[in-house]
Amino acid sequence: MKRWTERAKLLTGADAAVLAQAPPHLQSLLHNKRLALWQEMLDFYEYPDKELVRDITRGFPVTGWLPDSQVFPKDYKPPSMNVQTLQSLSKGLNERVKSKLGSSTADFLGEATWEETEKELQEGWMEVDLEGGQDAAWARVKFTRLCLGKPWT
Q1: Does residue 47 share a domain with residue 87?
Q2: What is the pTM of this model?
Q3: Residue of 124, 125, 129, 149 whose CA lies nearest to 140
């Protein structure tokens, strides 16, 4: 630990340089991470994913293919639909989610979800997709939170 604590102090400037390469929305999320130290540790321990820190500072796409990590087994699974198809179905899918959240039990769930969504917006963990319209952003976040089982409070 002593080695890495000392290296962390010496790499403060390098951390800033790595962070400067990230897009602004990721800079706010990664500002207190020791990215250069993390990369040095990955190199030192010969971690197979040599691009992990770079990938983190670029962000991972929500759609499409992820970079090969050299860590996980390759398990090719083609998507069941392309992005354009998903976008064309989104309004109907969103309406279906809204209708399922329409019961009195779901009122509490919807209110708690909305509060958490606003909190995530303020903290920079998500952004509103203005091109997709209000409906596009509404259900996407809530459905994701339901699937992940994330607590509401």
Answers
A1: no
A2: 0.56
A3: 129
